[in-house]
Amino acid sequence: MTRGRLALHGHFYQPSREDPFSGLVPPDSGAAPYPDWNSRIAAECYGPNAAAGNFGRIGFDLGPTLATWLRRERPETHAGIVAQGQGHNALAQPFNHAILPLASVRDRRTEIRWGLRDFELRFGHRAEGLWLPEAAVDLLTLRIAAEEGVHYTILAPWQAATRDLDTRRPYRVEVGGGRNILVVFYDGPLSAAVSFEPGMTTDATRFAREHVAPRVSASLPDGAPPLALVATDGELYGHHHPFRELFLESLTNIPAEDRDFDVVSVGELLADPHRSHLPLMAIRDQTSWSCHHGVLRWSGECRDAADGRWKRPLRAALDRLAAAVDAVTEREAGEIGVDLWAARDAWVDVAAEFATAEEVVARILAAGLGLPPSRAARMAADPASSKRLVTLMRAQRSRLAMFASDAWFWDDPARAEAAQALRFAAHAARLVDELAGTHLEATLVADLGALRSPGTGLDGAALYARALRAVDQPVPSPL
Ligand SMILES: [Zn+2]
């Protein structure tokens, strides 16, 4: 008789709320009595769960944009989470939470590299698993992840290309080029109940007895112990559902003799060298965990929004801006002897706030660059080259950040999430225009004219002006 296993995974994430022009998080009255949402969710969820030691007893991913804010603003909570992620339980996450199947191939690789490097800087060891933003997946994304050294990910059951998936066991996906990635599909009904039925998570003992034990009581046909994986947004434990950090604490602390299953993380499970040969599974390309219409929620019209006609033109405008930023910055970098893409991949140390711009620029300029050492040294010492490279990298950093999935998730581009995407877009466009004399901002604004906010009737150009108001017409200082 093998004991079943319960694995809990929390996806902890907040987008970057820093204004790219000032670097500050603007106050948000919706988060009252806290000054902004990061502060509020830290008080309700990240802080209490870290204090209870919950991160050490579940599997989790901590989004780099959130982790960067925590390390700067709530260092004790950040340190607690990092200390609790020293086993196999913590996963990395692509840095800016872009929907990878909708991103360019080069952006996917950068997002994954940034996520893995961020994890290593933060946790002090390499990540084995990668949580994909919105669990959005296709075979190419999995292949790039495998090439970058990722061993496993977690997906929703409907992302498997079969009708008879058994979520009680892990699978292996062949991604091409002789590579594999392991996938654990979460228990759909159980995860949905934990996410959306507050009554499920009031009593941990009852939950264990009535909802977990029955799911993991029967062995698998090959005798392997069955698994129930509950994967949810981490913020439900204390923020979406108040005081559920106590539920998590109780559930993961039930004495082993009082329950019929073990509590593990997916990482521990897959790190077990004695695990049996995993069966093969194919995945459904362009699918996700929070849209049942593939990845349409972030790219076009699906039934999740009453009127989603604004989504495609917004993405088209940002895609066009990204292509233009890439063309100009690649050329400008080449003129100072720098490979833009290698430099961009190295910039994560600055984005994650583990190094200054000056340190990383010096490293990039000194890194050989295919130049004779004497010339490389001269370049590295040249203040004009350094300054230009910093500008190019800042433009690339904002151009990556503008693709955070949040702008498309909700019903209306008049919301704060889309405004933040537009500020990142403006920041990238203005840096490039100023450096190279281009007109990327004018093109962006013209392209944004093609979309309209269903709620306010404003077109994209008006939304852009509104998002940039604080930057373009700063409130005069009372002094
Ligand atoms: Zn949808």
What's the gist of this structure?
With 479 residues, the chain is α/β, with parallel strands linked by helices. The chain has helices spanning 37-51, 64-73, 75-84, 105-123, 139-147, 188-196, 204-212, 244-251, 266-271, 311-335, 340-346, 348-351, 357-366, 373-380, 383-401, 406-409, 416-436, 440-448, 460-467, 469-472; strands at residues 4-12, 59-62, 90-91, 152-155, 171-176, 179-185, 227-233, 261-264.
Topology:
Elements lengths: L3 E9 L24 H15 L7 E4 L1 H10 L1 H10 L5 E2 L13 H19 L15 H9 L4 E4 L15 E6 L2 E7 L2 H9 L7 H9 L14 E7 L10 H8 L9 E4 L1 H6 L39 H25 L4 H7 L1 H4 L5 H10 L6 H8 L2 H19 L4 H4 L6 H21 L3 H9 L11 H8 L1 H4 L7
Parallel strand pairs: 1-2, 1-7, 1-8, 2-3, 4-6
Antiparallel strand pairs: 5-6
Helix pairs in contact: 1-3, 2-3, 4-5, 4-11, 7-8, 10-15, 10-17, 10-18, 13-14, 15-17, 17-19
The protein binds zinc ion.
Bound molecules: zinc ion
The CATH class assignment of the largest domain is Alpha Beta
Structural domain tally: 2
Radius of gyration: 23 Å
Proportion of residues in β-strands: 5-15%
Tell me about this structure.
The protein is α/β, with parallel strands linked by helices and 479 residues long. Helices cover 45% and strands 9% of the residues. The chain has two domains: 4-290, 7-stranded beta/alpha barrel; 304-472, no CATH class. A hairpin with a 2-residue loop joins β5 (171-176) and β6. The structure holds zinc ion (ZN). Zinc ion binds next to loops.
